[in-house]
């Protein structure tokens, strides 16, 4: 799966608008995830709290939307660290929580085009995380 220019543009614009809210976004994301999948939220929060460098890496990956090869390398590395211990079924509630949180914070700016872009971006992200986790299992 590749990210088309419209997806990249919509994600970039969304991220620019979400940057000022910082920790509030993260808190709201975990609140949503707790409602959707409490044990998963606890495991993921523990992994992320234990290594904030991974969170920074995820945010850094968004700076590489123009270079899909670099973006994918960063996401696979992140997957090797974070996705370790996550089942493929865990990725759906994470995506729902992420997209729901983006929708909440963008409000009226969350158009159909933005939603499609985030769904496409998350599908791409999940694919790369799975590859990273699979690579780690093979070691």
TrEMBL record:
Protein name per the record: Globin
GO terms assigned for molecular function: heme binding; oxygen binding
InterPro entries xrefs: Globin-like_sf (IPR009050), Globin/Proto (IPR012292)
SUPFAM superfamilies linked: Globin-like (SSF46458)
Signal peptide start and end residues: none
């Amino acid at each position: 799966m590749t990210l088309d220019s419209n997806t990249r543009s919509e994600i970039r614009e969304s991220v620019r608008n979400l940057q000022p809210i910082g920790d509030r976004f993260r808190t709201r994301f975990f609140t949503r995830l707790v409602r959707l999948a409490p044990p998963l939220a606890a495991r993921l929060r523990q992994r992320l709290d234990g290594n904030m460098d991974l969170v920074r890496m995820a945010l850094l990956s968004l700076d590489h939307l123009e270079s899909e090869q670099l973006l994918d390398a960063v996401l696979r590395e992140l997957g090797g660290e974070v996705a370790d211990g996550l089942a493929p079924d865990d990725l759906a509630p994470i995506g729902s929580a992420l997209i729901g949180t983006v929708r909440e914070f963008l409000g009226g700016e969350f158009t159909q085009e933005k939603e499609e872009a985030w769904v496409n971006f998350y599908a791409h992200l999940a694919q790369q995380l799975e590859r990273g986790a699979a690579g780690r299992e093979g070691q």
